[in-house]
Specification:
heterodimer; A: mainly beta; 11 strands; B: mainly beta; six-stranded mixed beta sheet; four-stranded antiparallel beta sheet
């Protein structure tokens, strides 16, 4: 399977703990996006990378959130000191410079107790 | 700012009925792209179609068709002869023409097709 893969698919954690999600984009894609989706809502943009450079961050991305893409391949999204409001599906997407559409992974569902 | 409105929260039809999902958008850009994605229960968003603002020609792909009307800022999606496998949440999305290319999504329409 050469699609976008995300890990873990599900994460349950206690409030105050740190969590990290990983995204492996489609191999030739240089653009990588993180979105958050809460129940009954559409995905909301969090941040995006072109190669290793993080070019934009949404105001939804508080100081507790940090994303990296160190070698321009896989990316990680870390949430520090999780809060119950962080419970959501975190979606990763990738695209190439030739694409306008984004290709999404299956998401990482976070539940904060 | 960009905005996408999908006023239909949930639609239920019986198999073989036709169904139209509405999408209305707002943007200050004169050039933009519109998309439809399908999200089945597994959670992965599946790309269905892309349309650029220059091209108002309607498109048909099998049982799917799309009606883009720039004058009313609408990009509606019709499924003809619906099937149970069409049950999913459908999202309309909008992106600008610039380098960012991030999508702004609507809140989605849940389609349930009953056998």
């Amino acid at each position: 399977d050469t699609g976008v893969s995300q890990d873990p698919r599900h994460k349950i954690t206690k409030r105050g703990q740190n969590v990290t999600f990983r995204c492996d984009p489609i191999s030739e894609h240089n653009r990588l996006y993180w979105y958050r989706q809460t129940l009954g809502q559409g995905p909301e943009f969090l941040t995006y990378f072109q190669n290793e450079a993080q070019l934009e961050k949404s105001r939804l991305l508080s100081d507790r959130f940090s994303a990296e893409r160190p070698k321009g391949s896989f990316s990680t999204l870390e949430i520090q000191r999780t809060e119950q409001g962080d419970s959501a599906m975190y979606l990763c997407a990738s695209s190439s410079n030739m694409d306008r559409e984004l290709f999404f992974g299956e998401g990482s569902r976070l539940t904060v107790l | 700012a960009q905005k996408v409105t999908q006023a239909q929260t949930e639609i239920s039809v019986v198999e073989k009925e036709d169904v139209t999902l509405d999408c209305v958008y707002e943007t200050r850009d004169t050039t933009y792209y519109l998309f439809w994605y399908k999200q089945p229960p597994s959670g992965e968003l599946v790309f269905l179609i892309r349309r650029n603002s220059f091209d108002e020609q309607n498109e048909i792909s099998g049982r799917y068709s799309w009606n883009f009307q720039k004058s009313t800022s609408s990009f509606n999606f019709t499924i003809t002869a619906s099937q149970v496998v069409d049950s999913a949440v459908y999202f309309c999305a909008l992106s600008d023409i610039g380098g960012r290319r991030a999508l702004t999504f609507g809140s989605g329409t849940r389609l349930q097709v009953q056998p």
